[in-house]
Amino acid sequence: MNKEVTSVNQHFSNRKIPAGGVKAALIDMDGVLYDSMRNHTAAWFRMATELGIECTRDEFYAYEGMTGAATINILFRRAYGRDASPDEAKALYARKVQYFIEMGEPALMPGAAQMLSVLRDAGVERVLVTGSGQHSILDRITHDYPGIFAADKRVTALNVTHGKPDPEPYLKGLQLAGCKADEAIVIENAPLGVLAGHRAGCFTIGVTTGPIPEAEMTKAGADIVYSSMPEFAQRLNTLLNAFKQ
Length: 245
Ligand code: CA
Prior knowledge:
The protein is an alpha/beta fold. Helix content is about 45%, strand content about 10%. Strand 6 (about 185-190), helix 10 and strand 7 (about 205) form a beta-alpha-beta unit. The radius of gyration is 18 Å and the shape is globular. About 45% of the residues are buried. The model has no long low-confidence stretch (mean pLDDT about 95). It binds calcium ion. Calcium ion (CA) binds near residues 31 and 65. Calcium ion (CA) binds near residues 31, 64 and 190.
């Protein structure tokens, strides 16, 4: 029995696997479709250290998936013992975005285009689910991954209140896809995103694309973890077939 069949069986344990297999894939953006996390963490680190807040660059990998305001509040509570006001959060997030843009366009994630083609060819609906509100990247999606994400199949910072690890973004994604949690898979690269997908009730896939250890994604509730995007793309058909056994 391959690891895909084992994971699907474990996920459904005493429940029936829905007939028809996977109907939709809810797909994170940063660290999944773009190799952008290095730039994001560098931009956060620059903004915070300029404010005089002690931090490490690596800690920002752990906040991946949170809204900008939630990340700023972690810094503010540590340094000042309070949350940022909405105006402060807005201004500081804008500064972080500016630093991110100055670093240039992040590369496409190797293997992501192949992964998306497998989904499209298998008739699985694709929904983008990101906490990002950065237009610099969102505007590129249609150009970089043509024919993959319909305009009405995108959850962004503009239409979520809570952000990951709250399940809200993935519950919105399910609504847009018009399917139930057990008919959808979530594709993530970071623990908070994995936790959000898991809480939404979806079969959640963790793909290692940066320095976050695989064990962190398993701990957050990933049903299966792949060591790279090319490996996931290659195994994806096997996984989709495991839902039809
Ligand atoms: Ca991510």
